[in-house]
């Protein structure tokens, strides 16, 4: 894509002064702090998904309840494109600052309400309905937050420093995730495990009252974007940003390039590196919450600065090569990284799986619905192994054939959970992870590497998207492709990956979802994504 009339080259861009740089630092700090708090609210649910499966969904099928909790998590992402259209257009019509003040208030209120919700045991089916409603409100708010904040920071940043300035905003999701883990860990340790399961889980959500007040105060101190003020004074503010953004083929083409050439691949790398890796460690590898949280906390602290590093580097060598490299490396290394994570955190499980192959042979009754309670012996056997983080091979036999499960050299007919557990125990399986056997340094190194991938794909992306679109419809234009990619492909990644694991019986099968999408996006991006670092957003 060549520079269009919407863009000018670096030679025509205004040069930064010392006062400009000081003002930019203030804007970045204020915008980033407010966004950290908003991501903290949003990620609390993701970190507590295991608890919500037991609290808010019908009992009787632990696997189905867990998948339902992940689907509810994904529901918050699914409505993000709608939030992007609603609040993105508001940002282009009434101002960047006003728009992300509104989204912050909605997010804060919805999060506090989650902390007050009754459970399934108290109100029945109303519990998941109310929970999903609050998730939808959170999704709408986050859908409008990112585009407004990214546009706001980039329009304040001096030319030649947009990658570095906006990369600080890119770290806020990770810092919000880290803050949510630390708050949850502190609460669980303070009130005890049993109390936390009963009522202590509400505390992190209720703390959002304080965070909301602080965040609103921070955002109120900011001035409006100079680019928006200039457009307003010259009467150039768009009256119909949605129509202008998507009803014009030249701009719609930029939207499609951004979606299919960058955001889809970025999304799966980002969420696999953070959310799915934590789910995988806790559910498949059976690592206790203290150990898993500490591994991620240290890994995030070590890896997050790389987001800023790659953002700043993109000011020098360009946005495109760094983002494409991150997607390619993600496609190549996600699978071996998770294998290494398994070896470092639960070596006994890795050794057991290698030494004791498990095979399930069954006929037409092996259907295994994701949400229905397992009814047949075959379904119960598959659910049993998935619940315990054990991979198995499945072989389809003739119709009407009874299910036969082989654990090592032992053959078991039908399904008897007591007998299955006894056989696994005799074969040397221990569902509990010995904390002394965890290679903490190795696990942290893997998490840090995953964050390096995030840094490559995510660090330069905000600057890239701001530079792709004209100022009058910028917030609307960039918000939609970002949140379609993040919302549809990213939000349902834990659910889709977990479903793949259950259907195939392979605990690593879920990784084919992000690997395939990252590879496809990188291939598309090589040919159609332009380099934007020399475009002037003014």
Explain what you see:
The longest helix has 36 residues, at 249-284. The chain has a four-stranded mixed sheet, with helices on one face. 72% of the residues lie in helices and 3% in strands. By secondary structure, the chain is mainly alpha-helical. It folds into two domains: 17-337 and 439-527, Up-down Bundle (Growth Hormone, Chain: A), CATH 1.20.1250.20; 349-426, Glutaredoxin, CATH 3.40.30. It has helices at 18-47, 49-55, 62-78, 80-93, 96-114, 120-123, 126-156, 162-191, 193-200, 202-206, 208-220, 226-233, 241-246, 249-284, 289-303, 305-317, 319-345, 347-355, 377-387, 417-426, 440-458, 461-468, 474-490, 493-504, 512-528; strands spanning 358-362, 393-396, 404-407, 410-413. It is globular, with a radius of gyration of 24 Å. InterPro entries: MFS_dom (IPR020846), MFS_sugar_transport-like (IPR005828), MFS_trans_sf (IPR036259). It is found in: Cell membrane. Its main location: membrane.
- The rough form would be described as globular
Quick one: biggest sheet?
4 strands, mixed
Number of domains: 2
**What class would the helix/strand composition place it in?**
mainly alpha
Unreliable spans are 1-5, 7-14
Measured between the Cα atoms of the first and last residue, the distance is 19 Å
Strand order of the largest sheet: 2-1-3-4
Mean pLDDT: 83
Which class of the largest domain in CATH terms? Mainly Alpha
Architecture of the largest domain, CATH level 2? Up-down Bundle
How many H/I helices?
25
What is the ordering of alpha helices and beta strands? HHHHHHHHHHHHHHHHHHEHEEEHHHHHH
Percentage of residues in helical conformation:
over 70%
Assess the beta-strand content as a share of residues.
Answer: under 5%
Number of strands: 4
- The CATH topology of the largest domain comes to Growth Hormone, Chain: A
Whole-angstrom Rg: 24 Å
The CATH superfamily name of the largest domain is MFS general substrate transporter like domains
């Amino acid at each position: 894509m060549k520079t269009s009339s919407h863009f000018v080259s670096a030679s025509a861009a205004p040069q930064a002064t010392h006062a400009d740089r000081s003002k930019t630092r203030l804007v970045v700090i204020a915008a980033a702090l407010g966004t950290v708090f908003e991501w903290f609210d949003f990620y609390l649910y993701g970190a507590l998904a295991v608890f919500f499966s037991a609290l808010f969904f019908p009992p009787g099928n632990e696997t189905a309840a867990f998948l339902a909790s992940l689907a509810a998590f994904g529901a918050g992402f699914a409505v993000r494109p709608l939030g992007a259209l609603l609040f993105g257009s508001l940002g282009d019509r009434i101002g960047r600052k006003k728009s992300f003040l509104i989204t912050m208030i909605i997010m804060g209120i919805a999060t506090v309400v989650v902390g007050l919700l009754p459970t399934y045991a108290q109100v029945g089916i109303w519990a998941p309905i109310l929970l999903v409603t609050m998730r939808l409100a959170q999704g709408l708010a986050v859908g409008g937050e990112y585009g407004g904040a990214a546009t706001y920071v980039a329009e304040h940043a001096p030319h030649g420093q947009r990658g570095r300035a906006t990369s600080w905003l890119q770290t806020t999701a990770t810092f919000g995730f880290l803050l949510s883990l630390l708050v949850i860990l502190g609460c669980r340790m303070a009130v005890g495990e049993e109390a936390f399961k009963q009522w202590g889980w509400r505390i992190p959500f209720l703390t959002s009252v304080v965070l909301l007040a602080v965040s609103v105060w921070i955002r109120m101190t900011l001035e409006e974007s100079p680019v928006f003020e200039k457009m307003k004074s010259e009467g150039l503010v768009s009256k119909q940003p949605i129509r202008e953004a998507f009803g014009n083929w030249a701009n719609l083409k930029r939207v499609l390039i951004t979606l299919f050439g960058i955001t889809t691949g970025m999304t799966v790398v980002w969420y696999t590196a953070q959310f799915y890796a934590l789910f995988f460690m806790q559910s498949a590898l059976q690592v206790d919450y203290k150990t898993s949280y500490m591994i991620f906390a240290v890994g995030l602290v070590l890896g997050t600065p790389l987001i800023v590093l790659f953002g700043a580097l993109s000011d020098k060598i360009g946005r495109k090569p760094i983002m494409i490299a991150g997607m390619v490396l993600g496609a190549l290394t996600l699978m071996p990284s998770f294998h290494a994570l398994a070896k470092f955190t639960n070596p006994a499980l890795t050794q057991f799986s290698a030494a004791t192959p498990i095979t399930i042979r069954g006929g037409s009754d092996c259907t295994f619905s994701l949400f229905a309670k397992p009814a047949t012996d075959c379904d119960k056997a598959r659910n049993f192994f998935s619940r315990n983080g054990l991979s198995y091979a499945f072989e389809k036999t003739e119709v009407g054939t009874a299910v036969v499960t082989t654990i090592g050299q032992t053959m078991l007919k039908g399904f008897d959970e007591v007998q299955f557990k006894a056989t696994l125990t005799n074969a040397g399986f221990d569902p509990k992870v010995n904390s002394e056997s965890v290679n903490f340094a190795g696990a942290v190194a893997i998490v840090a590497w995953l964050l390096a991938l995030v840094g490559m794909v995510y660090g330069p992306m905000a600057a890239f998207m701001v530079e792709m679109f004209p100022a009058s419809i910028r917030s609307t234009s960039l918000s939609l492709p970002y949140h379609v990619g993040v919302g549809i492909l990213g939000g349902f990644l834990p659910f889709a990956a977990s479903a793949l694991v259950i259907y195939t019986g392979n605990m690593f099968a879920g990784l084919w979802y992000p690997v395939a999408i990252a590879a496809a996006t990188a291939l598309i991006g090589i040919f159609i994504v332009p380099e934007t670092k020399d475009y002037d957003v003014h």
